[in-house]
Amino acid sequence: MWHKLLSSAVMVAASGAVAEVRFAPVEVAPHVYDGGWEFFVGGGVAAFDCDGDGLSELVAAGGTNPPVLLRNQSALGGAVVLEEVTPDALRVTGTTGFYALDIDGDGWQDLVALRVGENKVFKGGPACSFAAMDLPGFDGGDAWTTAFSATWEGDNALPTMAFGNYVDREDPAGPFEACDANDLFRPTGEGYAHRSLEPGFCPLSILFSDWGRNGRADLRMSNDRHYYVRGGSEQLWAMEAEPRLYGEADGWATHMLWGMGIAERDLDFDGVNEVFLSSMGDQRLMKRADPALPTFEDVPYELGTSAHRPYTGGDGRPSTGWHISFGDVTNDGLDDVFIAKGNVQQMPGAAMDDPNNLLVQLPDGRFDEQGDVAGIATLARSRGAALVDLNGDGLLDLAVVNRRAPLEVYQNVSKSAGSWVSLRLQNDGPNRDAVGAVIEVQAGARTYTREITVGGGHAGGVAGAAHFGIGDAETVKVRVIWPDGEASAWQEVPTNGHWQIKRDSGVVAWPKS
Prior knowledge:
With 513 residues, this protein is mainly beta.
């Protein structure tokens, strides 16, 4: 699609094709991600609904500071209001990131805390309460954990969980060429069995996804060549009974980068996800070259997605990308991209004044930088982030964690946005949030495809409703391909509303009135 668009004689000028997008800062309790060299990486934030009111809370890692939990007190459609309510159970130091998922299927979101040291799991309860969670066979270890992903395999009562570990701090020959092994926990009966995934090449983002749409989620790892130096590469694990690495015989091409974050989204409406990897230097947006194989090729440079140097601030050295996520910030029906940027610490070959990117997609498939005019071009050393609708008005807001600078939250106040629909799934059985399901939304001639995943980004992500910007459509048709492969019937859904799709009872309004 993109090659044809770029060769078309009719091109849309970047200066006139971008819908207005504006963000306004929100005052929140001060919070800083801090620490020494073990906290140069990490600094993730999780967005999730921990009190059942349909609006997302935020929990941000603190490094050597305690984490912070910001409870959402916004009126539906009003100003974003977040109140600091961090429970004692979460006040642990050494956190690098958080991911939310309903591990035990009780309807409350649990939390996985990634740490320098023992990883911890917290059981969620009413009113954003949390307590230590006992999972038989699970061991939080003592590694330097920087990445996480989870999925449900088959009819297991518990999720499969993977932890990506960075440099082995106990290796006397380190830190270079001293990447630790990664950890995989698969359910067995009522508990977990552990195995190592080796070799490890210092992942900073991992993601389970069903790239081949064959009913099995494989595990992608984006690795930091700064520490593996040589002999390493990006990895894709085939999640067979005995996991194995895809190789060139499978169509997987060996390539290396300073991998920081992973994001997936079907940008061209062909039912196949593109993959976007953040890195030091250029960011890598890749399209599947063969729908049957894990074969990817870089999209043309002219699309404007490399985001390889700062666009404001006066520093011309290469950028350093961290969290990366897709989201339609103007609801025009085309997904945009947010990339958190910031120097690792004082790396002289990389930009110090490195603004975050907001790449707004144009009708011709190219992307235009709007971070500065949108008001989110901070020059702090950003790390994790979340694009999420915090006040339920149908516009994606933004939270950004910064290293040694305050947490930032922005409300999307764009005036010329289009229509949208927000869809939350409820599955039968233990996988209550339908991780691994695929949502399909038909709006006119387009079909939007979205897989429900846990992982990716950098040390955090968004759990909950899937947001679709759909332009000027007044109604859409929706169906769900559930994790076991069963497809629901197509149902018509009005736009500009929040809906929950239950496995056995169809579409209902959400939040509950």
